[in-house]
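Render this sequence as a predicted structure.
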Amino acid sequence: MLKAILNANTQIMPFCELARDLRIQNTPLWLHQRNVLAPYTTREIELKQGERMQPVREPTIMYRDNLYFDEIYIKEFMQEATKRKRPVRAAFRSDDPAFKEHAFPLSSSYTPAGSLYLADLWYYPNGPVAGAEPLVIDLEAREIGYYHVPTYMADQSGDLVFQVPLKSFIAIDSWVHVFIADMVFGQFGRGARFEKRLNEDLGFKLKILGKAIYEGRQVLECSELVKVGKGCIIDPSAIIHGPTIIGDNVTINAGAVIENCVIGNNVNISQDCQLMLSVVGDGAFFTISHRLVYDYYYGKQHGGTKYLFTNVCSWAQYLYWRRLYIYRLQLNPRPITRT
């Protein structure tokens, strides 16, 4: 199958880089796309903006290179597309909770079509042609709490929540989308899929339990849930709960606590650090008692330059929820009540 890649030339601020070059889950977006599509494609062509594609007569998948999608979404998309045997284009319902709350705001990549929004992902069984029909894939969002807010501090609209999808798809048009792709669709999504499989797959549950008993560890600390790379040095007093992925040549010192994280290569985590639901880039160095929660830390990348994404993500969280709260308050103003 042919893979045709359309270039998105808009730089994402404040990084001043194209979306394809940004790291999602500690992997450059272009490489992540290539890895996800590798089981389906045999060759690729890249089309710059305004460049016309030569006619071909073979199955083709075409997408814009600012898209983040995971294996589960692409698997279902390809199954449905090949079953129809007609040109299709990825689409989302306007009321899909994950799309409505997280993917659509601040985005310019979706084309409205009635009650649907079309994304820049196509499948052609016999080469690109006009008139692809929409193919809607439900993201299967689950409402997962972000913070519990006491009633005397907020209105009656409830707790702050994320709409976490079991299948991930989002266009990276803003720096907020980088946070959403990494945290909500990445870390939270991975945890939600793990919980779903644990509840539905008895064999998976017994496998984890057996591995924990064999290794003499707690269930969340067994090697089935905590994947450790080569050449790592981990202090026995460190606490690491899965699902967590640790790269190569990582040093984790005494008293560190790590829960549901992705940690890159050549990372040093000093004593008493706490990392939860976060992504750590290659070459990062954490000083004593550093904390990273719902965040991304760029390590030593991009020609040796260090980028600290922590403050950006913190501001993204604040601005995103402040904007969402004000928007809802304008739609349905309610007085603040105390209990």
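Summary. Confidence is low (pLDDT under 50) at residues 302-316, 325-331, 333-339. Residues 175-200 form the longest helix (26 residues).
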